[in-house]
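Journal club prep, notes for RB
We'll compare a predicted complex against what the paper describes. Inputs for the pyridoxal-5'-phosphate case:
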Amino acid sequence: MSHALASIRSRIAAAETTAGRAAGSVTLVAVSKTQPWDHIAPVLAAGQRVFGENRVQEAMERWTPHRQDVELHLIGPLQTNKVRDAVAFFDVIETVDREKLARALAGEIARQGKAPRLYIQVNIGEEPQKAGIAPAEADGFIALCRDQLGLALEGLMCIPPADDDPAPHFARLRAIADRNGLAKLSMGMSDDFEIAVREGATSVRVGSAIFGSRTYPPA
Ligand SMILES: *Cc1c(COP(=O)(O)O)cnc(C)c1O
């Protein structure tokens, strides 16, 4: 599996060069959600240190023994009853997407005296089934998080509609970040990360292209 990792790393490096961006300016978040540990171990052994998970419980179970070695990003929906664990466990929470969650995070960050880095998820294609704050509400939500709740925001995250050209969606996310003074953009997955690098991604979230396709065991 680590040859796949090396290939993704070199494609990111090539995309950085093509886009005229500094080498190493894009962080690879290896999305290990639902993967068996024997797919993850070689990637860890090959030196990958930043991983993305979409479930708090699953992440804690599998990563607790390796917690000191890795940076962990929560990239899946966060329920308010999991906020305590998420604040305690993750380095980055990429899915802040509603006021109730932002308030719960602010309370828990104060209580624990520990703040994960925070990204707001924007529903950039305005898809009814998808999580994220609507683009038209993003400026107001960012202001609420910062000014009323005192949250230190780092950036924005999005998942464009599967069947659209992702480039205009990435460009729209970047415009929202730029006008709000947010430096980081988490965008781009296995099928479109090079386009995302061209459009200004500072991190890409790549799963199946590194680990192989996911198998979802029956619940
Ligand atoms: C699963 C997932 C990814 C990775 O998707 P791939 O197509 O396997 O690269 C990236 N971001 C989010 C939010 C995900 O849920």
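Talking point for the session: The CA atoms of residues 92 and 117 lie 5 Å apart.
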